[in-house]
Automatic annotation (TrEMBL):
It comes from Leucobacter tardus. This is ABC transporter ATP-binding protein. PANTHER family: MALTODEXTRIN IMPORT ATP-BINDING PROTEIN MSMX, OSMOPROTECTIVE COMPOUNDS UPTAKE ATP-BINDING PROTEIN GGTA. Keywords: ATP-binding, Nucleotide-binding, Transport. SUPFAM superfamilies: MOP-like (SSF50331), P-loop containing nucleoside triphosphate hydrolases (SSF52540). The keyword Membrane does not apply. One of its GO terms (molecular function) is ATP binding. Coiled coil: none annotated. It holds the Pfam family ABC_tran. GO terms for cellular component: ATP-binding cassette (ABC) transporter complex, substrate-binding subunit-containing. InterPro entries: AAA+_ATPase, ABC_transporter-like_ATP-bd, ABC_transporter-like_CS, ABC_transpr_MalK/UgpC-like, Mo/tungstate-bd_C_term_dom, NA-bd_OB-fold, P-loop_NTPase, Transp-assoc_OB_typ2. Residues 4-241 form the ABC transporter domain.
């Protein structure tokens, strides 16, 4: 699969603001790229522009060396000539066609010989575990089976690129888990290039080789899932990834935590007056007895336990730190009680610092 390049791409539907703004993004051969962000961030619009279902307003899109959309040069390649496979949230299966005929549909359009079509349909339905249902109609299938039919139909035509627009959102939690594993297997087995749209961070973290986080039409950060999780470039990205979400402590003059935060940051950040907030993920907080940890060596947030919530394999502990709620996740059992005074302790490497413009600040971790 050639590299896909979006160069300063913009999309405007006639309003004052762009749905997608100045998007520069490269999707490499073999990538499983997840476009991640909240509803309305521009991720579906981006996929539709790559597919050719939307004309871009400005910029250019290239697939390899071939320009497929560039308004300034009056260049536009039709969707059916881009060799792209699409799966949408609603699967778009033909209700009057059997499973086998749905999988065969794209092959018929390409006028492949019947013997080759029959072989491809048999191979795809077998690989995706839907061969026993090949004579059934979509209404006779479960959501997960319909998903497999949509994938088989797409894979049968050997597309250069697979575009998946929230294809798992209609499935229950168990089926979603199964289909995530199925998509990872398909990506590895077919050596496909995949662009996957989702607002579900767990789908992005578990499926992607690279993640592109978007917000309000603007690309925020691109990187591997763990790079983005461990080193978010700004507060939006930090807050969007993580369950429970990252805790933030505001660095206002009136903040009751300011003294302990300043004690920790004093020799690690050159300009304390430029700091707007700090963030710590719940799993990075260690719960210690009150007053037992040095604030110069670790970040220490004195708090009081408000509730202890079991979640099966771990516990989520809600604490009051001044007027703020701070959450920690722990494997401790039985030793934590509502009303206990505790210290929430974090090592330097797990503390994220953001300036007043909510951009990440480098911290000396020594």
């Amino acid at each position: 699969m050639p590299t896909i390049t979006l160069d300063n791409v913009e999309k405007n539907y006639g309003g004052e603001t762009n749905a997608v703004e100045g998007l520069d993004l490269t999707i490499n051969d073999g990538d499983f790229m997840c476009l991640l962000g909240p509803s309305g961030c521009g991720k579906t619009t981006t996929v539709r522009m790559i597919a050719g279902l939307e004309n871009i307003t400005d910029g250019s899109i290239r697939i390899g060396d071939r320009v497929v959309d560039e308004p300034s040069a009056q260049t536009f390649v039709a969707p059916e000539k881009r060799d792209i496979g699409l799966v949408f949230q609603n699967y778009a299966l033909w209700p009057h066609l059997s499973v086998a005929d749905n999988v065969d549909y794209g092959l018929k359009l390409r006028k492949l010989p019947k013997t080759e079509r029959t072989e491809r349909v048999a191979r795809m339905t077998e690989k995706l575990g839907i061969a026993p249902y090949r004579d059934r109609y979509p209404s006779q299938l479960s959501g997960g089976q319909q998903q497999r039919v949509a994938l088989a139909r797409m894979l049968a035509v050997n597309p250069q690129l697979m575009l998946l627009d929230e294809p798992l959102s209609n499935l229950d939690s168990r089926l979603r888990l199964e289909m995530r594993a199925e998509l990872k297997r398909i990506h590895a087995e077919f050596n496909a290039t995949v662009v996957f749209v989702t607002h579900d961070q767990w789908e992005a973290m578990t499926l992607a080789t690279r993640v592109a986080v978007m917000n309000q039409g603007v690309l925020q950060q691109v990187g591997s899932p763990m790079d983005i999780y461990d080193r978010p470039v700004n507060r939006f990205v930090a807050n969007f990834l993580g369950v429970p979400p990252m805790n933030f402590v505001e660095m206002t003059e009136a903040s009751p935590q300011r003294e302990s935060v300043v004690a920790f940051l004093g020799r690690r950040v050159p300009a304390l007056d430029e700091i707007g907030s700090i963030g710590v993920r719940p799993e990075s907080l260690i719960i210690e007895p009150s007053g037992t940890t040095s604030a110069s060596e670790h970040l220490v947030l004195p708090g009081r336990i408000e509730s202890v919530m079991p979640t099966g394999g771990s516990w989520t502990v809600e604490t009051a730190v001044g007027t703020q709620r701070v959450y920690a996740t722990t494997l401790q059992r039985g030793a934590l009680h509502t009303g206990d005074d505790v210290d929430l302790v974090a090592q330097a490497a797990s503390v994220h610092v953001f300036d007043r413009n909510e951009q990440r600040v480098k911290v000396d971790q020594s």
